[in-house]
Amino acid sequence: MITLSHVLAITGVLTAGIIYGTDALGALVGRPAWNKVDDRTLVMATGFMHYYGDRRFPVPGILSVAATVLTAVTSAISGHWPATAAASTAAAALLTWLAIYQTINAPINKQLTQAAQEGRVPPNARDLQTRWDSVIYLRAALQGIAVAGLCLTLVLH
């Protein structure tokens, strides 16, 4: 059971790491860069980035949540309570991230994607990006907590 828990935790680290890196890039590089471009460039670039991201990121996202939850379960079955706590914290961070993404970011992504595909700039483009940016540091932190929790799970087993 410990080997399975390790494999699941490693899978969680690798898949959550994809999203963590992307969110960290968005917080550290994207946010200030989008403040320097005109609205049309902002909409075209972010709209098409969200178009591809929203189609390709569900796979690592689903795998990271599933692997992390299963890591917590297998750690609990094995009776490794500190590892269970670390994995459970990671799972809670990922589920919180998902709730933020679904309620704030996904609706904005759809609006920016549609505008980019239609070649138009919505009058509230900058407001949409500001709202999207308002949670990117929190999203990056939650993914970081998840990756760290999964790494700690491996150490504690």
Structure description:
- With 157 residues, this protein is an all-alpha fold.
- Helices cover 89% and strands 0% of the residues.
- It has one domain.
- The chain contains 6 helices and no strands.
- The longest helix is centred in the middle third of the chain and has 38 residues, at 81-118.
- The radius of gyration is 18 Å and the shape is elongated.
Percent strand equals under 5%
Taken in chain order, the helices and strands follow as HHHHHH
Shape by Cα distribution: elongated
Structural class: mainly alpha
Number of domains: 1
The radius of gyration is 18 Å
Quaternary status of these chains?
single chain
Number of H- or I-type helical stretches: 6
Could you give the distance between the termini? Answer: 11 Å
The biggest sheet, with number of strands, parallel, antiparallel or mixed sense and barrel status, is:
none
Average pLDDT over all residues: 97
Number of strands: 0
Helix content: over 70%
Q: Low-confidence parts lasting 5 or more residues at pLDDT below 50? A: none
In short:
This protein has 157 residues and is mainly alpha-helical. It has one domain. 89% of the residues lie in helices and 0% in strands.
